[in-house]
Amino acid sequence: MDDSTPIGASVFTTLRWREGRVAWLEAHLKRLRAHAERLGIEWPEDFEERLASSSPTGDGNLCQVKLSRNGQIELTLRSADYPPSPLSAVSHAAPRFTRKAQGTKHAAWTPYSDARTAAENAGVDIALLVHDGAVVDGDRCTPILLDLDGVAYAPSLEGGGIDSITLSILKPAIEAAGIPFRYARLTETLLGRASELIVVGTGVTVAWID
């Protein structure tokens, strides 16, 4: 997926993988199909049967499932490569696309890869993606802020971030623990009130930012 790849050439999702088993498959496929529809990619009627009969290439503990516009399904393994918490972070301009594509996991992924490279070049672990004065996402993760009043905040999807599967799984547990949960613009003012900042995602799992 390079700079010349059309946005709608494919759609993908990445799942945790262990010895042929994956986590939260139903949730990932539901999002994958929703993103495919937004990008105008036809969803094969036999998708799940073909997925079950496909063999992944590579090695690792993450499995990317990619559906191309021509109906091809590809499974690629890679490894998550994060150090133990706490992680370090740097801000980076959030990638922007058309309204239809923004927030989907599409083929033109180079700007997100560039954000990761910028973080690595800065000697940190994570890039926090900023647009219009607010953190809207993270590279390969979703930030959650816990403020001084004990309220948890995650970026609203209106800012252009990806709807996180990991966050959707954790949100009920956060609320069950008695922590109010809100979606909001993570502005500099709100960040200044943070007592903790964590990131969640398929690769990073759950980690806090130093």
UniProtKB/TrEMBL annotation:
Stretches that traverse the bilayer: none
GO molecular function: catalytic activity
Any matching Pfam family: Aminotran_4
Record's protein name: Branched-chain-amino-acid aminotransferase
